[in-house]
Here is the input.
Amino acid sequence: MTNNLDNLATALYVTTDDLLKERPDLAPWRPTVGIAPQLTDAELVPLAMMQAMLGFTSEARWLRRSRARLRHLFQYRPQQPGYNKRLRKAAELLRQATRILATSTSAWTDAVWNVDSTPVECGRSRETVKRSDLAGWAEYGYCASHSRFFWGLRLHLVCTLQGLPVAFALIGAKADERETLLDLLAAEPHLVAARPGQTLIGDKNYFGRDFEHELAQRGIQLLRPTRKGARQRPGGSLFKPLRQVIESVNETFKGQLNLEDYRGRTPRGVIARVTQRMLALTAAIWHNDHTGQATLRSLTS
Here is the structure.
């Protein structure tokens, strides 16, 4: 492997093709009788990854660009409505491909995790809130980091110190961060079962005696800043620079992968587009790891 976007797409295609051969159940369901798609599911994954990596938020613009510049990689590209439907149905395939890439990196075994949530705005006008298909899932919430109210979701992310996504969830803006983290760990108990003594770094919102007790039962040691009026916690000054990693990862999603301009209008559309950006970041780290880059979380490489 060399450090080149075309080679990254090719390597991702081969990995996805092997995954679908081992797990054909991951492919989106389609009738056994009918016209076979000209763009295979294994080709759809790198096509979606490259869209997020190159910063195309408009699917129509991306397909026009791919027809002009990527004929050597993709012989066929569907029209925008077909691509949109394929992408929404392939959300689980994108998630599984993301996990396969993540477990193939040296950063996967990192003994320290970061956890945080960041807003994913879904609308700004009152009319949008009334008519949106996301109503009931998206909620009004407040982001203390940016001192603003918003209507939408929160992306809860657990990642390594290199920025490699380990687990994530999309929850309403008012959801408790602690409960969401415990649900993430309960949904995939093997993540911590194979990592005794895992360290987790969070912010001041991850507090509570019962909460820390549940983490300790799972073999996780929590590091967080001391809350106002509480007794000074040990090691508080040592992990402050490490805490900035998760903020940098969130900025990568928003600044380079356009997380706040995903253009999803339905729950399936939002899930597919957020997963698409998770795949892009994980694929970049995976590729940089295998090509010996000094900085794993670098999209410009």
